[in-house]
Design brief:
105 residues; mainly alpha; 61% helix; flat
Length: 105
């Protein structure tokens, strides 16, 4: 292993270095829904980082993500747990309201 630079050693000694990444979360239905919803909310103008300059909504990209979630809901109908159905329906409801609000601005 190559020696760290003096700056990196100082950060490590002070505890400024970020912790090593942990294992990824399990690949499950909820994670898929949240990943698609996050992309849609960002496309609708939600701030990615605190203090970041708001971006104008990208309505076509948001609509595509919402369409993907709607297709997922239709294709998985009858095969989801009650909690998964509630999560997906709730997120779709929130996204639709946010889409209408963003399209009016």
């Amino acid at each position: 292993k190559v020696d760290e630079s003096w700056k990196e050693k100082a950060k490590t000694e002070r505890g400024d270095a970020p912790p090593p990444p942990g294992p990824p979360p399990p690949a499950d239905f909820s994670s898929l829904v949240l990943a698609l919803a996050t992309g849609a909310f960002i496309a609708l103008g939600a701030e990615a980082e605190e203090g970041a300059k708001p971006e104008p909504p990208d309505l076509p990209r948001a609509r595509y993500s919402i369409d993907l979630l709607e297709m997922l809901a239709a294709k998985t109908k009858g095969n989801l747990s009650p909690a998964e159905e509630r999560q997906l329906a709730g997120i779709l409801h929130q996204l639709r309201l946010a889409y209408v609000d963003a399209s009016r601005k």
